[in-house]
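Teaching soon. Invent one.


***
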Amino acid sequence: MSVPFSKMHGAGNDFVVFDGVSRPIQLTPQKIRRLADRHFGIGCDQVLLVERPTTAGADFRYRIFNADGGEVEQCGNGARCFVRFVRDKRLTAKDEIAVETLAGMIYPRLEADGDVSVNMGVPRFEPAEVPFEAAVRENVYDLEVDGRIVKASILSMGNPHAVQLVPDVDAAPVNTQGPQIERHPRFPRRVNAGYMQIVDRRHIRLRVYERGAGETLACGTGACAAMVAGRQRGLLDDKVEVKLTGGTLRVSWAGEGQPVWMTGPAITVFEGTIDLEKL
């Protein structure tokens, strides 16, 4: 039986989104990989599934599957598309919704100009919470990658991130070194590898090799992690524009113990139906 879907993107980070509230949707890793395939499926970085909540006080449950078929904790660009989807499908009339994720609750909000802001929660720095194998917490860690030492800020935005400073993001080894960092043995759940170029205290450029998806045109949690890493090093102000390959996100953070806010676009590209049993 065919089921409807929406193809969406947030700053070029693209998604196939299903409504699992109106009808049950069964997705296996094999089906997800096929859906995400840009030659034999619809094509996307992640598949998003909207479901009824299992947590008291939540409006919806938000499930995220990377292109490799694995389910992950958080996706910031996807959260913005999630809000646009549930509003467009009339699953809610609220401007601000409470959303259950594997990483905990988030509270995205539809703005008057059509952009979506997301309270991404409080960043976590303790190695065990990332998770990352280290004896003590530090602002910058040494990682041995391919026989060389890489200096990276390591933190969790609901999912793990390792952020490097680079002089020129266009020349950064995203697609050669990124896969090595993603699967570095000190990250038991793998990691998203970010490469940040600081333009000035309110502007950065960023590329991210995403865990389970490869380099994407934008990574919302990666933008938040990079901004936080720069703030922790004393290099950035509390409001920053993050320029990614696919567009620009606005990120703000008041400091340790406070939540990170991210604002950006959420666009529906097209809609269709697909027979999941034939994948």
In short: The radius of gyration is 18 Å. Residues 76 and 106 are 10 Å apart (CA to CA).
